[in-house]
Amino acid sequence: MSRPATAAVIVIGNEILSGRTKDANLSYIAAKLGEAGIRVMEARVVPDVEAAIVEAVNTCRGRYGYVFTTGGIGPTHDDITARCIAAAFGVPFGRNEEAERRLRGYYDPDQVNEARLSMADMPLGVELIDNPVSIAPGFRLENVYVLPGVPKILQAMVDGLVGSLEGGTPIASRALTVYAPEGEMAAMLAGVQARFPTLDLGSYPFFRQGRFGTTLVCRGADTLAVAQAHAALVEEATRMGVESAVFDAATARDDALPPGPIRP
Amino acid sequence: MSRPATAAVIVIGNEILSGRTKDANLSYIAAKLGEAGIRVMEARVVPDVEAAIVEAVNTCRGRYGYVFTTGGIGPTHDDITARCIAAAFGVPFGRNEEAERRLRGYYDPDQVNEARLSMADMPLGVELIDNPVSIAPGFRLENVYVLPGVPKILQAMVDGLVGSLEGGTPIASRALTVYAPEGEMAAMLAGVQARFPTLDLGSYPFFRQGRFGTTLVCRGADTLAVAQAHAALVEEATRMGVESAVFDAATARDDALPPGPIRP
Prior knowledge:
homodimer, 6-stranded mixed sheet, 4-stranded antiparallel sheet, elongated
C-alpha cells in the first residue's frame, strides 16, 4: 500500500480575511481528498494581492503533492488568480481558445462581453477542469488545481476531479461521543494513544442538546489499528461508567451555553 | 490618522484539515479586529505537529503586528500549542502559578487532575488572557495571542481582548446588492475602482430567494472615499436599470441552485 498523498489548499479572497464571508470550501475539499487517501497538510488564506498569491502557490507546490486554490477566477477586476498562477510559474498569460469556445457556446451572443470572456484568460499550457454548473472552466498547471470560490460550483468541480487524482491509502476515521468533559477523559485517551502511536487520536469538546460531552476521534491509514483503537476507547469508557453515544457531534451545531459553570 | 495595523490568524488542529470540523473562528476574529482598525493579512491552518506550528508562528510574528492562534490549549494529549509557542520563542515551558491558582479555584477538589492542571503549563513570561466562560486562561507572549478553539469561549476572550489592542484607522465597508450577474456588472465596477484606487472594490455572486445577484463591496480606511464610491455604484446601477436592494447577502445563506443555466 502506498503512503497517503499530500495536498495544500489556498483560499484566495479579501472577503474571507475581512470576516465578511466564512470559507466553506476547505472542509469540503479536505473531506473529499481524505476519502481518496490524500491528506491536506496545510491551508492558507491569502488576500487578492499578487505577491501574496504567488508566494503561497510557489511555497505549497514545492512541498505537497497537490495544491488546490479557490476563488478569484470570475469576470470582475478583483479576479486575479489566473494571472498570478502564470506569474508563479513564469509562463505567458493569455486567451485559452478552448475555454473561450465553451464560454461563447454557453452565453447568448448579446450576453458575451469582455468581462465574461476574460474568464478564458489563463496561463499557457493548462489543462481545463470542467465546470458542469456555470461552464467557465477551472484549470490545472502541473500539480496546481485552480478552482472557483462559489461553494456549489466548486463542489461540482471537485466531485468531477477527485477520481482522476492519484491517492494514497485512504484515511480511516472512527469516532466515539461520550457525555463527559475532556478533562476526565484525557488520561484514558493518552493511554490509548500510547498503545497506537501510528494513529492520530483527537478530542473535541461540545455542548449540545443541553449536555456537555467530548467526541474522541481515531484517524489513520491503518484500518485495523483504527478499529482496534476505537474498540479500546469504547472498552475504557464503559469501564469508567461514562455514557457514550453514536450521536454525530461533528456535524451537529453547538447550542447556546447554559448559565452554569463549564469545566472542560 | 495612523495606518491600519496588521494581523495574522493561525488555526491549529487536525480536525480542520481533515474536513471534520469547519473553522468558525477566523471570520469572528477578522470582523472584530476590522472594527478596531486591525486588518487580517493572512491566515494559516496547520496540523497538531510541532514543526508546522513553530514555523507558522515564527513566520507570522515577524511579518505582522499581531498573531492570534486558535486551538490546542485544552487538557488532552493532542493539545500541544502552548509547548510549541515556547519552542518558537526559545523560552522555558512549565507551570504558570497564577493559571494553576485559577484552575484550582474553579474545579472542585475531587475534579482536579493532572490533565486539567496541564492547562496551566505555558511558556515563561506570558501575560494571561482571561477566560470568562471556562476559566482556563489563554496567554500573550510578545505579539502572539494564544486562544482556544471552542468558538463560544474564543469569542468571549476576543471580546475581552480587543479593547486593549493598538488599532489603526478602522476599515469602513459599504455594500450594494444588485439582482444582476457579475459578468454584467464587471465593466462598471472596474470603472468605479479606477476612480477610487485607494479602496478595495469586491464582487461576490449569490443565488438566494430564487434569484441570482451580486454583492458589490467597497472597503478602505478612507471613510469619505468609501461613501463616494458606494454612491457612484448606486448611481451607475440605477443608470443601467439594474434592480438593487439593501438585502444583506453576506450573512444570508445560499439556496439550492435551480436547474436552469447559471451565467455569471
